[in-house]
């Protein structure tokens, strides 16, 4: 499994601890969460979420990393045993999985920010001739994974640009399909730009749920596809790529497909 967003607590310069180990020391996160210390109840919530969704906590996974950091903080007397970080407590700790043929994509988040995403193999009942084909994650399936990981995010122009690039890559056509994913995403981004009420904004899940069925054609995601989608998203998002967003999901699918020689 690939745990790309996770750092090791001991790499963070806290050998002689004076300050608590923060989320930004362990994971690739930003904003308020990055400056918050990892606390014991945060780790307990992630362990519970992993067990509930995955059946057990993952060795060397997100919950284990959080537990290690929280234990060091507690041993140093910097946090209490029952302490909980307000970001994790208020916004939640989640583990989600997206099933695709032969694989499942697991995404773990704290306070709405992705702290870990990896892919695991699952049994596929298929003929030998179709096994390789079915093990490949398509662009449409990667978009569906986005709907599950950051589906509550309002659609912005960078999302629309990434979705358009993904549709072009999936279909092999530069013609935007009327009523297709790219057209829906662009309409949603334009609407959201004018919408004053956050609750009324169109979310990524509204556009990307069932993405595979909405595409006129689909294909296995490749590194070239991932680069094209990431470039489109980056051009329209000076703040950087969205963790768990369209570009990140297509990149994760492409990495998996490279591993199975698609």
TrEMBL record:
Region (Disordered) location: 1-27
Keyword Heme: no
Pfam families recorded: SMP
InterPro entries named among the record's database cross-references: LEA_SMP, LEA_SMP_dom
Domain named SMP: residues: 21-75, 137-194, 202-259
Signal peptide (from-to): none
Basic and acidic residues composition bias: residue spans: 1-19
Keyword terms, alphabetized: Repeat
Family label: Belongs to the LEA type SMP family.
Protein name: SMP domain-containing protein
Protein's organism: Stylosanthes scabra
């Amino acid at each position: 499994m690939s745990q790309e967003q996770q750092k090791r607590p001991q790499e963070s310069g806290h050998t002689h601890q004076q300050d608590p180990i923060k989320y930004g020391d362990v994971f690739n996160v930003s904003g308020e969460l990055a400056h918050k210390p990892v606390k014991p109840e945060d780790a307990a919530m992630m362990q519970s979420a992993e067990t509930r969704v995955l059946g057990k906590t993952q060795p060397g996974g997100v919950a284990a990393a959080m537990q290690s950091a929280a234990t060091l903080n507690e041993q140093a007397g910097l946090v209490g045993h029952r302490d909980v970080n307000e970001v994790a407590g208020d916004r939640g700790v989640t583990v989600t999985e997206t099933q695709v043929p032969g694989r499942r994509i697991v995404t773990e988040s704290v306070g709405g920010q992705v702290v870990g995403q990896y892919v695991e193999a699952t049994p596929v009942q298929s003929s030998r001739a179709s096994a390789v084909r079915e093990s490949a994650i398509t662009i449409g399936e990667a978009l569906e994974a986005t709907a599950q990981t950051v589906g509550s995010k309002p659609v912005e122009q960078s999302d629309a640009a990434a979705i358009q690039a993904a549709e072009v890559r999936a279909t092999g056509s530069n013609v935007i399909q009327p009523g297709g994913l790219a057209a829906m995403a662009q309409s949603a981004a334009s609407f959201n730009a004018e919408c004053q009420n956050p609750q009324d904004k169109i979310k990524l899940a509204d556009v990307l749920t069932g993405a595979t069925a909405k595409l006129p054609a689909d294909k296995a995601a490749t590194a070239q596809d991932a680069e094209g989608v990431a470039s489109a998203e980056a051009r329209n998002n000076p703040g950087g790529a969205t963790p768990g967003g369209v570009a990140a999901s297509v990149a994760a699918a492409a990495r998996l497909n490279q591993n199975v020689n698609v």
